[in-house]
């Protein structure tokens, strides 16, 4: 019982953090480009975790270093850029909702590439959750996704997330979560600095309140939404498995709606009902 309680606490905390991250991306994009925001995000995460890198490098088996770095690329680096580029055309709420496709991708990738056999109830739960998600995005039964190119960027990010949860679940047992995160993000510091330099970030007018606000949002996103959240996520994957961890993305629309309500967006009873359906899918899959 205590194990399940801890797993659900991690689930809720991660949902809160990552559900808020899409709004922080939007704030970051007010004055910075879709390449500068994710680069700052990953850079700040790497700086925060630098003090742990030496110990992590000594403790992680050398044969596992490549897998850890790959996890950082698939689980954080590439998705961070894909989401920010998508949010130049899509709303933060819609982007967060589309992110809920990750559990389905996690099951499919686990079946086709990691020889996993999902239980029937888990598949049913994911389908129920996706039905709720569909009507949440398309309340009139018509899916209006705007520019399909940007939607596909989000879907590609969910595929990367799904591959990552399977990699962590299969290959990283016995490695401390802090060590995984430290190596993964410290390795990405130099590429992020290069991207910031090439895109002209260091020439920004740092006396501008908009630039300062966007920079602060990107850094908070990195320190909390990436560094801290990644440690919790790696821990959840190893405790509860890839499918349960991937289903954190089902909690994100709840937070997106809450932020929308806070900022004055209208929230209908129908939307609340759809969120209830999604929650039912989470329950069925983890019953």
From TrEMBL:
Alphabetical list of InterPro entries matching this protein: AA-Vitamin_Transporters (IPR050638), EamA_dom (IPR000620), EmrE-like (IPR037185)
Domain EamA: 9-137, 150-285
PANTHER family, A to Z: EAMA DOMAIN-CONTAINING PROTEIN, INNER MEMBRANE TRANSPORTER
Keywords: Membrane, Transmembrane, Transmembrane helix
Pfam family, any one: EamA
Protein's UniProt name: DMT family transporter
Location(s) in or outside the cell: Membrane
Mode of membrane association: Multi-pass membrane protein
Protein family according to the UniProt entry: Belongs to the EamA transporter family.
Membrane-spanning parts: 7-27, 39-58, 65-86, 92-114, 123-141, 147-168, 180-203, 215-234, 241-262, 268-285
UniProt keyword Signal present: no
Main subcellular localisation: membrane
């Amino acid at each position: 019982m205590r194990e399940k309680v801890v797993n659900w606490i991690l689930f809720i905390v991660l949902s809160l953090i990552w559900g808020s991250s899409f709004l922080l991306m939007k704030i970051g994009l007010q004055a910075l480009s879709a390449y500068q925001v994710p680069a700052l995000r990953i850079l700040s995460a790497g700086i925060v975790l630098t003090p742990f890198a030496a110990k992590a490098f000594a403790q992680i088996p050398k044969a596992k270093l490549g897998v850890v770095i790959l996890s950082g690329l698939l689980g954080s680096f590439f998705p961070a850029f894909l989401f920010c580029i998508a949010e130049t055309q899509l709303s933060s709420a819609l982007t967060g909702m589309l992110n809920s496709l990750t559990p389905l991708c996690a099951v499919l990738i686990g079946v086709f590439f990691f020889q996993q056999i999902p239980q029937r109830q888990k598949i049913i739960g994911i389908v129920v959750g996706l039905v709720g998600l569909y009507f949440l995005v398309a309340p009139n039964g018509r899916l209006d996704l705007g520019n399909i190119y940007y939607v596909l960027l989000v879907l590609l990010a969910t595929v990367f997330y799904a591959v990552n949860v399977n990699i962590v679940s299969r290959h990283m047992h016995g490695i401390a979560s802090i060590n995984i995160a430290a190596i993964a993000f410290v390795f990405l510091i130099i590429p992020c600095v290069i991207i910031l330099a090439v895109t002209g970030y260091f020439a920004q007018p740092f006396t501008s309140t908009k630039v300062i606000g966007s920079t602060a949002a990107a850094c908070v996103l990195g320190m909390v939404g990436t560094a801290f959240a990644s440690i919790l996520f790696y821990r959840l994957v190893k405790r509860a498995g890839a499918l349960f961890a991937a289903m954190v993305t089902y909690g994100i629309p709840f937070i997106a709606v809450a932020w929308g309500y806070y900022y004055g967006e209208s929230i209908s009873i129908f939307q609340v009902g759809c969120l209830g359906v999604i929650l039912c899918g989470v329950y069925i899959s983890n019953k």
